[in-house]
Amino acid sequence: MEFLWSLIVGGIIGWLAGMIVGRDVPFGIIGNIIAGFVGAWLGTLILGDWGPVVGDFAIIPALIGAIVLVFVLSLIFKSMRKAS
Question: Does residue 60 lie within any of the structural domains?
Fold first, then answer.
């Protein structure tokens, strides 16, 4: 049950990051979950484990990390589309 809750929270974090950046995360729901998990890992690595924790995610660092990840991915995909 805890794993399911982590998937839901990771997906919401990825979705929020995409909404804040103003770009869709590639691959839909799966992309949102992946962006949430990788963003949480990145944010916690850089900013530490502080703030409210929901579903094993420190929400503030996870959201900041996901925002950075979505922004960087959107730049990469945009440059790949232009190169084609």
Answer: yes
